[in-house]
Amino acid sequence: MKAAPADQIRLLEVQALDARLGRLDHKRKNLPEHAEIERLSADAAQVRDLLVAARTEESDTAREQVKAEQDVDQVRQRATRDQQRLDSGAVTSPKDLENLQREIASLAKRQGDLEDVVLEVMERREGAQARAAELEQRLAAVQTKVTEAEARRNSTLEEIDAEGFTAAKEREILAGSVPGELLKLYDKLRGQFAGVGAAKLYQKRCEGCRLELNITELNEVRSAPADEVVRCENCRRILVRTPDSGL
């Protein structure tokens, strides 16, 4: 393949822009904020699950408290009615009086037991409420950190995209001045060799594979016409000669 030396030099400029675009893409994908947001989002999900559990417990204990208070009220009302019967003198039979007094005593004990249940349920409800309030604060704090990290990420991505847009336009213009066949070969090689399709021969060393050419290889490059597109014998990339090649 033949290409003017100036065109081969421009190919190196295209390669430099492609390398720049590659670095920008790598930076875009590996921003520290990506991992930070992922970690914070996982933390938020965990806190959110705990919050749902606390709120569920709070709701359950609220219903349990209402039921326990209703039970206390029912026993209290029955005890009040029995006490009124006892105080009214309507019950005159000694046996009935004894049964009534025994029932009043039993109801008093029952009421005490139920009131203890109400207190225990109230304590559990208050504990659930406290946990829910603390978890709401934790969740808000984590979500604030997520928002801040997303803002930093988005700002950096905007900068990267702006730089990438400029580099891509420069690449488009510059690539348009490179002969089509040469550019086609370069793109093919770039796809095969980790994004590097053309490399400078600098001080007898290929900057693509970083290997120094042996004397036979150097003589072949020296003897090649200036417009011939030469390839590195080691990595097969396009090898571009410059005044710094050391030939």
From TrEMBL:
Residues 61-85 have a biased composition (Basic and acidic residues). It holds the Pfam family Zn_ribbon_9. Keywords: Coiled coil. Signal peptide: none annotated. It comes from the Bacteria. Residues 14-192 form the CT398-like coiled coil hairpin domain. Residues 97-159 form a coiled coil. InterPro entries: CT398_CC_hairpin, Oxidative_Scav/Glycosyltrans, Zf-RING_7. Residues 61-93 are annotated as: Disordered. Residues 205-239 form the C4-type zinc ribbon domain. This is C4-type zinc ribbon domain-containing protein. It comes from Streptantibioticus ferralitis.
